[in-house]
Amino acid sequence: MSSQILQIKKLSVNVEEKEILHGIDLQIGKGETHVLMGPNGAGKSTLGYALMGNPRYEITGGEIWFQGKRIEEESADQRARAGMFLSFQNPLEVPGLSLNGFIRSALSAGQGGKLRFREYRKELARAMELLQLDGTFGERELNVGFSGGEKKKSEILQMLMLKPVLAILDETDSGLDVDAVRTVSQGVEAFQKDRKGSLLIITHSTRILESLHVDYTHVMVDGRIVTTGDGALVEQINREGFEPFMNPEAVERS
Amino acid sequence: MEEKTFVDDIDRSIYDIKNEEKDVYRLQEGLTSAIVQQLSREKNDPAWMELFRLRSLQIYNNMKIPDWGPSLDGLDIDHIATYVRPNTKMKRKWSEVPEEIKETFERLGIPQAERKSLAGVGAQYDSELVYHNVRREVAEQGVVYTDMESALTGEYADMVRNHFMKLVKPTDHKFAALHGAVWSGGSFVYVPPGVSVTIPLQSYFRLNAPGAGQFEHTLIIVDEGADLHFIEGCSAPKYNVANLHAGCVELYVRKHARLRYSTIENWSKNMYNLNTKRAVVEEGGTIEWVSGSFGSHVSCLYPMSILKGRGARMEFTGITFAGKGQNLDTGAKVVHSAPETTSFMNTRSISKDGGISTFRSSVVVSKGAGKSKAAVSCQSLMLDSQSRSDTIPAMDIRTQDADIGHEAKIGRISDEAVFYLMSRGLSEEDAKAMIVSGFAENVSKELPLEYAVEMNNLIRLEMKGSIG
Fold this sequence. Notes:
Largest sheet of chain A: 6 strands, mixed
Oligomer: heterodimer
Strand content of chain B: 35-45%
Helix content of chain B: 10-25%
Keywords (chain A): ATP-binding, Nucleotide-binding
GO molecular function (chain A): ATP binding; ATP hydrolysis activity
Low-confidence stretches of chain A: 250-254
Strand content of chain A: 25-35%
Domain ABC transporter (chain A): 6-247
Family (chain A): Belongs to the ABC transporter superfamily. Ycf16 family.
InterPro entries (chain A): ABC_transporter-like_ATP-bd (IPR003439), FeS-cluster_ATPase_SufC (IPR010230), P-loop_NTPase (IPR027417)
Distance between the termini of chain A: 43 Å
């Protein structure tokens, strides 16, 4: 039990009065990498937002335990300070706020206002090099005018700097070219290996998984987890797609 | 999800400390020619000024209160004491300023700012300047920075007479006329040709007496090729009776000169701020306005620039923050009356907690102003659904040969952006403050550092206790 970082029990979630997730069960242990796959509209991103505490996503049933504590009532910032991180599929633009200033504020919020500036600079430079980001990138306004690849790299940069216990990556590989996928997965790999961080990787493709070690794979269809397997399941999906996991009637009809 | 979001009002206590009123002299509240004459005598006006005041009073009495802007019904002009003189003569040494008044300015950070980064400071308490000082090296360059009363009779008396209310005439509007009749205090600045004042001059206006009006007059002449940055700051404690600020600022920018005029206005939230500001810019000259409006109950403030000489330029950067009970009607006007003139207005307005902010812009390009360029860009951010934001642009372009641009954006603070920042561990209050500060960033970066810091503190203060 104690090695479980995240436990989701029978979680149901509504968005605008409509139930999207119907009783999800999921457990993630320390240092484990889980992949959540499934066709578009299955409810994968909804799970990510609900875990992070977006107020638009209403929890109507079930429990979320994070590091031994129930967190359904906690706000997003409380969850973040407890060590949860969500990499956004579409990170929002905040004009006038520099990426650098943002990371620094977030870090000092997490550390009760104490931040060692020199160490911070060094760490930032290292992480930016790993992600092949230019030194001036940190001075740009948060996500304003960022390309698709830059946005995702900026999210991974924030993850590396904030050092969460659990990182949820929502479609971090979507819309990226081959080189950018490789760079981003190097960042994720560093998080796996150096930080021993737990991961929940939400994706509907398998590109980002090629160079990453995967412990468990879950397939979500229509707001339910229909299958759970190990890393090999990813290869099966690669070959056969999601159809074998879909509602049999729906498959027959198609 | 709540239908309505609501942002609480803030604690303004550091601005709200009021001193017991110890004025030796307070004019009876209404306004008659006898009172204006008495004021003129008290101030030892030259004869022409007494006449000017009486003429202005006549104009005032014959004019109607403007009916196109925010309501001025709460302003009972017959009961606003026009002239309150503090119980002290003007001092050149800070240590000689009476303790109570000194403390007020100390709290507002005025002398500290002077020691650090200003070339000269004037501090006006109610109707009179109580402190005035200019650094020796600046004075040695021939720069004149003095209170208006001394300027009227001193070495530059003729210059003052030739410029006083020539740019803003008493006939302009009712409050300009009122100003002409009862003006008191303010500053006169003259920068001789070719002189660059490298550190800013500053005036600070503080209105302490309840139910009083402040009518300071600022007259600045930057002569050919000279360069100046002038800063004014304003504040007042809150009383239950309305106060009125009807100051007047006249700026003369000569050929190839440059003047930057920065204002941080943080009047108490029962103040009617009906200020008139105007600049005339000669060939190749530049006027830059930086304007932050945070306080007052009602503001009507539209600094105007007349680009009179070829190649004259104006830039207006402004931010308005309207909270509970505030109706801030601000904007800028520009008249291009010579060829190759350029103007650029860039403003941000923020409203929350039922506050109303309106941005009016007026661009006039006259027939002879070919090859001129004008660009207006205004953005508004509403922090909740009770607040209002309006944009009212006006353009009158009389030549084909001009390049005109206009851009306006009005939006609500995005819940998704707030969530995004919160997901990194920032509290809701901090997340919102960062979004608002970011929104204001391109204005705050135009301010001198200590003012940018003050502005960010004000934003933080305004955002405190906000709930989603």
